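Hi support team,

I submitted a single chain yesterday and got back a structure, but I'm not sure I'm reading the token output correctly. Could someone confirm the output below corresponds to the sequence I sent? I've pasted both exactly as they appear in my results page.

Thanks,
R.
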Amino acid sequence: MTDAPLGRSAKYTILTTGYTLSTGPGVAATVSYVTDGESHVIVDPGMVAGRDRILGPLAELGLGPDDITDVILSHHHPDNTMNVGLFGRARVHDHKAIYRDDQWTDRDAEGYELTPSLKLIHTPGHSPEDITLLAGTESGVTAFVGDLWWRPNGPVDDPVAPDHNVLLTSRLRVLDTADTIVPGHGPAFPADDTAPR
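Hi R., thanks for writing in. Yes, this is the structure output for that exact sequence:
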């Protein structure tokens, strides 16, 4: 059984492509914009060289921070969350709740649908609270995985992951559903046999 969303109307743009030079200095998040109907979503507004790396490409799409309805945090590491405050009107989603203004609404992310084309699933491995946004698009399912993969070449053995077997199980779950993977710190890549396991 696949985790794929039923809808295929989502569209996305990678606002800034991240990178890792190590686990320390020189880290930037891949920050994405996903839209479906009235939903305008930012995924992992993390560390970047300057806020213009997020807001500039968003403005080129004709959008400002107040137009964003939802922010998805794949996990709680600062390099993937640092700029969440740019989107003060948005609902913020993590593995266990939705946050907005002074409201905290508990809900399990597993299977949660923002729209029929946008679905969250649990994908622990890099950290226990990892989630993935699955976006059904005209060209297939794109998985925004946070640091389940840092970049197209892995790393195969994530030095931060507490248990590689848990990481592998989540990677295989994503590969069973997705056509394209957007990692936490690099460009998109195909969800095929070349993806690191």
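A quick pointer for reading it: The chain has one domain: 11-190. Let us know if anything else looks off.

Best,
Support desk
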